[in-house]
Amino acid sequence: SPFPQRKSKITASRKLLLKSLMLAKAKEEWDQEIVDKQLEKERYLSERITPLHTSGLSLSQLQDLCRELHEKVEIVDEERYDIEAKCNHNTREIKDLKIKVLDLRGKFKRPPLRRVRVSADAMLRALLGSKHKVSMDLRANLKSVKKEDTEKERPVEVGDWRKNVEAMSGMEGRKKMFDAAKSPTGQ
Questions:
Q1: How many whole angstroms separate alpha carbon 50 and alpha carbon 32?
Q2: CA gap 37, 31 in Å, rounded
């Protein structure tokens, strides 16, 4: 880059102090947010829910009050169920749209592939469909090799391994082996 790298003027201990102060401030604000939400919830519930006055009511009046409360609970439960169903529907729709977007981009997660044995004929049939009529026997197209040819190519010298063991032992034998390896003609 055209500009030389400048060393940071903040020391490591100062950076650590600043990080710890930032974390402390964030935790303080988070705790305050939790308290504020709890107070808001209590205020909302106190506005919506009137306190029950059950003192001085007869048995039939208490039963009527229970029935009325039960009906309200059922209505609220139905609304909760409807909202939950809408929410689930929306999350499914969002998931489907995300998949469509990924497909349009061409970046999608590929499934793990399994190895499958397929013959050459089946592969060509899958690729070409009904157009494929020629049978392809791969083994028939292999070059045939005669047994005599292979034996002529590699003449094998079979000798007695015990021969010259004494001659090759010791430093003299090692010198002979070294000289034989060094010379290209093998002399």
A1: 28
A2: 10
User: What is the longest distance spanned by two Cα atoms in the chain?
Assistant: 128
How far is it, in rounded angstroms, from Cα 170 to Cα 175? 9
Residue with tokens 């970046």: 107
For residue 50, report the phi and psi dihedrals to the nearest 5 degrees. Answer: -90, 145
Q: How many CB atoms lie within 10 A of CB 81?
A: 10
Would you list the domain boundaries of the chain?
13-51, 58-104
DSSP symbol at 56: T
Give the span between the Cα atoms of 71 and 78, in whole angstroms: 11
Q: What is the pTM of this model?
A: 0.34
CA distance 171 to 178: 10
- Dig out the tokens for 143 from the structure: 């070059």
Q: DSSP labels for 59-73?
A: HHHHHHHHHHHHHHH
State how far the alpha carbon of 12 is from the alpha carbons of 5, 26, 136, in Å.
18, 21, 71
Determine the Cα–Cα distance for residues 17 and 102; give it in Å rounded to an integer: 43
Average pLDDT per consecutive 10 residues, the chain (187 residues; last block may be shorter): 65 92 96 97 89 84 92 95 96 93 72 78 75 61 64 59 62 69 60
